[in-house]
Amino acid sequence: MAAFPCQRGSSSAEAEFVNSAYSPTTVTLLPTYRCSAACHHCCFQSNPRIKKRIPQERLRYYIDQILEIPSIRLLCVSGGEPFLLGADLVDIISRASSGGLATRVVTDGYWAAGASAAQRALDPLVEAGLNELNFSTGKDHVEWVPLERVLRGLETGFERGLGLALMIEERADSAVNLKSVMAAAESLPIVHGALTSGEIRVVVSPWMQFNSDGLEVPQRPELLANRMNLAAREPCMSILSTIVITPNEELGVCCGLPRESIPDLHAGSLKDHRLRDLLNKAGNDFLKLWIFVEGPEHILAWAAEKDSSIQWENRFAHNCDACRFLYSSPKVLDVIYNNYEEKIDDILGKFAFLQATRAARSDRWIADA
Questions:
Q1: Where are the domains of the chain?
Q2: Contact 175, 147 (CB under 8 A)
Q3: How many C-beta atoms surround the C-beta of residue 340 within 10 A?
Q4: pLDDT confidence of 7, banded at 50, 70, 90?
Q5: Coil, helix or strand at residue 193
Q6: CATH 3.40.50.720 correct for 25-219
Q7: Average pLDDT for 280-304
Q8: Angle at 307 (CA atoms; ends 305, 312), nearest 5 degrees
Q9: Is the CA virtual torsion 241, 220, 182, 151 positive or negative?
Q10: What is the reported pTM?
């Protein structure tokens, strides 16, 4: 699908405005989809058998290009499981940190099998300049990585002064939730206290289905988007703000879970183009700006007002799930294509305000880190 341009007719004023205001602040680097786990509904189908990865010299080359973009303040390394990179992960963090970037690693915590193992895995990264460590857990995760390892990893990171976050994947049929995590953390007073005080940030995220095996997993009804709770649905915090370098060495303009299944969220190959050149093109797409400003649920509600056959209510708990539907529904895309110009002035004005607000918020994060 062709991008929805920001400008009307032959005028390029809006496009020039967007490209000057479009300033991503975060890069998520995915060196590989290889993982210590093989979760049934992994968004990237990660597993231990995957061998493909970006060569280390190419990773260094991309970090050097990232350092050329003044608006980018944070490098996040995710996957797959980044700790499987070993010394190469330490090299990535050191190169980014020495260039002035804040750094974050997202992990499942498999490496924290014991106190000594956790220290051996984490200390080289701390010495290299790591700022933040994010852990993920949930029903699928604990089949491969016991919750005890996650909590031990949090304890080790807390003792070393790292910024810490824990993402809990929430689903109605799961015994892994905030309550059970807090109960398990009681055996580690440092972690329990930090979770209680908010020193370790907790994010509870709705579950998304990725395996097309017909299994329907129930969501908590109160999490499903509809007109009654639409006002509480926020703008997308990822698209255009966080860009992604994939294991295929492509540039993604969103770090959302279903990115691989949405071709429009890929800006091109970094093997063929420099990062800055791809970014210069990425901002001139009105639909992406609209998602950034209002979020996919609001766009679906708007589209349903024009085509009542669009059924979106009480289907999506996760905003990324709503976005996946938006990009895959011919009815929704047809409504947007035929009517989006009526929203241009409103969305471009809101876009400039949000960019300024998010830049200030990023400055505060860097100061705290």
A1: 25-219
A2: no
A3: 18
A4: very low
A5: helix
A6: no
A7: 90
A8: 75
A9: negative
A10: 0.87
